[in-house]
Amino acid sequence: MKLFDVYPLYDVTPVSAKGIELTDDKGKKYLDFYGGHAVISIGHSHPHYVNRLKEQLDKIGFYSNSIQNPIQKELASALGKASNCEAYNLFMCNSGAEANENALKLASFHTQKSKVIAFNNSFHGRTSAAVAATDNPNINAPINKQQEVTFLPLNDFEAFEKAMDSDEYCAVILEAIQGVGGLDEPTTQFYQFIAEHCKKKGIVLIADEVQSGFGRSGKFFAFQHHLDPERSPTDTERSRSVQPDIISIAKGMGNGFPVGGILVHESIKASYGLLGTTFGGNHLACAATLAVLEVLKEEDLLVNANELGSYFKEKAKEFLEIKKVKGKGLMLGLEFEFEVADLRKRLIYNQHMFTGSAKNKKLLRFLPALNITKTHIDLFFEGLQKELG
Ligand SMILES: Cc1ncc(COP(=O)(O)O)c(C=O)c1O
């Protein structure tokens, strides 16, 4: 049997990885500034992560969601505290698409409606409702087109207000920083405008934090950049001003272990059988996620993401070729005047550095582990300088 050939591949075969470094089968070392689509949050094979997974595997790796699983409860409690989202309940699954699929399904159950609002250039995954809410006709099969999704321009208040004339929407799904689309962001005013309208109309607001969550943007969740300090004095009250009803998570959550989930606001009630999955929330997935949370705290990685993001932005100013630096924390992109596919290839083969692409073909994405150092950023810009000539 051969592989179903859906992925265009670079000719690199990593066989080991440590921190931000990958080593290929010929012993060549690469710097990983992409983390395999924004997945590696605390570095490859972090010792604490490896030990926690090994210890868990020695005890019990998996059982289904029909038994008591204290490590899931431990994780829910730790995640609530780390994210300042203690008014939410956790449902676990296995990927970002699955998280959004469950979020949309739950919104539909909750409201008994079926239409969804998403935004231009959105990416929410490749499964049924998630792909229908993804702004890319090439990955929507005829079977996905039965979902009714309205795509609106980001930051267009008028278009959003007009859509609110309808009473048929169950959900608005929104990335606080667009990942695959190319790092465009809703303004704070727009985020708050959406949140207020959703509250008023009883529409479920879904914050897709699959890529931007777990500290990548410099806050635990990227929507938390839009908390309004003017409106209310305490963090908890502030959260209320842009409080999503559901928050979807995956990617950096497991640092490579396939795990996803949704945080469901306590105003949305659970009932037996409403959602379910065989693998979701298994012991190993919980151990991986707890290890990530522990390292984020122990190494103060949200602070590092902010500081190094600012350092990256300063360094980028030295390059006339860079038109714009986009993003927050260590969820960053460099926009050039030209398409970057060739530059990205040269960075891999000549400079041995992984970076990412986006739907915006002029954008080079930079999504390293949150514990990189200034030296790594200097090395990136040295490599970039060599390739720009
Ligand atoms: C914002 C966002 N949501 C959802 C997904 C889908 O995640 P997965 O590939 O784990 O299904 C992605 C993947 O890139 C993403 O960036």
Automatic annotation (TrEMBL):
Q: What is its EC number?
A: 2.6.1.11
Q: What are the recorded GO MF terms, alphabetically?
A: identical protein binding; N2-acetyl-L-ornithine:2-oxoglutarate 5-aminotransferase activity; pyridoxal phosphate binding
Q: Which InterPro entries match?
A: Aminotrans_3 (IPR005814), Class-III_PLP-dep_AT (IPR050103), PyrdxlP-dep_Trfase (IPR015424), PyrdxlP-dep_Trfase_major (IPR015421), PyrdxlP-dep_Trfase_small (IPR015422)
- Top enzyme class, one word, equals transferase
Nucleotide-binding recorded as keyword: no
The source's domain of life comes to Bacteria
Tell me its family: Belongs to the class-III pyridoxal-phosphate-dependent aminotransferase family.
Quote the protein name from its UniProt record: Acetylornithine transaminase
User: Which species is this UniProt entry from?
Assistant: Flagellimonas maritima
